[in-house]
Amino acid sequence: MKKLSARARNGINCAMQINFPDEKCSDDGYTPEQVSMMARSEAMRAPNLGRVTLAEIEDWLADSGLGFKAQMTESEVVFETYKKVAAELLKNPDDPEQLSNQFTLLTARGPRNPSHLMMARRCYEIAPKNFTALFNLGSAYHRAGDYKEALNCFTRAQEFCPPDKRHEVLAHIGLAWETLGEFTTALRSYDQAIDLNPNDPEIRQSRALALIQSGKMGEGLFEFECLYYKPARKPISESGIPRWMGEPLDGKHIIIHHEQGYGDTIQFCRVIPEVRKRAQKVTLAFPPDLTALLKTSFEADEWVDEKGPFKADYYCSPISAFGAMKTELAQVTGEPYLWAKPIKLPPRGKHKIGLVWRGSAGYSADVERSTDLATLAPILEIPGLAFYSLQVGEATREISKMGLDGFIVDLSPAIKNWADTARAVMAMDAVIGVDTGVNHLSGALGKTTYTLLPWACDWRWSRGSRNTNFYNSVTTYRQQVAGDWSHPVNDIVKNLRGWF
Predict the structure, then answer these.
(1) Could you tell me if 315 and 294 are in contact, meaning their C-beta atoms sit under 8 angstroms apart?
(2) Domain that holds residue 410
(3) Are residues 403 and 302 both part of a single domain?
(4) Is residue 75 part of a domain?
(5) Which of 133, 157, 177 is the last residue of a domain?
(6) Most buried of 51, 90, 323, 496 (most Cβ within 10 A)?
(7) Phi, psi (rounded to 5 degrees) for 408
(8) Residues 323 and 263 in one domain
(9) At a CB cut-off of 8 Å and minimum separation 6, what does 320 contact?
């Protein structure tokens, strides 16, 4: 039976864990077909993920010596893989192959951990001329926020890189330059990677994001959302209806549907009126917890369930409509476009402040954008401000853990959908939070909003200005050092004291 390389095993195990973090492929586990599909998608969001061929996947599935069943739940796959690698490291803690396996397994998902960089450094010291060791070290530095050292490692890795991995190394060099804000240099690296492998859609999409950040939003969004779009696992993507690429919509019927994160839909649903001007018929297909919000602000010829069935000439998402129309940033107006009636709250303090400190854990970069409630403590010191949590889910427990029940009012019992969240936001004098759907909603409603951004912030926020074309009422506060929220939080404190 064919013995798989460490790269193949790492790639397959990671692919099963990370490619679709927001959705389970089935209730009873992953079938071989699903594993094949996931592994082939080759997610760029895990820099250490190795490319894996279908033949390697089939060999792996057939290799009973690895001890994996044909169908396993995600947690079973993670646990079994971890046990196997741990058993090998118990025998030899300096086995570079198993150190690499462990690093790949641990970094594929989850928050940063000091052990990640430690493990990568140890593996590198044992095998300094090993390509995987050096490449993983670059990935570890990137995750730790040391992007210059990550760039150094990726650059040095070229010396030991096998020919079939050169395009990946160049793509990660591009990613490092992009994260450092050197978008022109990043584009050159991406172009070199594309020259070596022109059929890799992941690299094409990474280049498109760098293009957007270089100031060419229309061209970049068109490439990302249209030319090199990777279909989402949604019913409408499997309906046979073509995706709108900017064709004339005279006499045509188009469906606009929810495709990505809630923040994406809330930010770009402003495009609905423009699409309605162009098309004969517009159908809106959104999840129920968004539909109630959008119905208060937009008209449509038809509202349908996002699960279908569907019948139309084209479909698009709000953000892909921006791409199809090649909308430039200068064309975006920051005026409010959503509306909600505020909830009634009893008098309390001089000013009401809504707080959001965590986003969805399913988002691949959540560890960078989210924080904990304790980070906002300097803001809580300001007299006269009454605080309200706009969080839902597990994050609300931090209020009790810090002993702040009553001091911070937990509004989650009153929040069942996005319309409820909008009503809560409208009752605030200002909203302070990390880069989540709630802050996009606050900006779309025209509410004064202070948005905390990680150092390597998302493409939609300007790195050179605290203002944004997307929302006139939003001011951004970006980390000066990756992972350190103290400076942006202190700046918000200064502004709040001056404002109030």
Answers:
(1) no
(2) 351-499
(3) no
(4) yes
(5) 133
(6) 323
(7) -110, 120
(8) yes
(9) 221, 225, 226, 229, 243, 244, 259
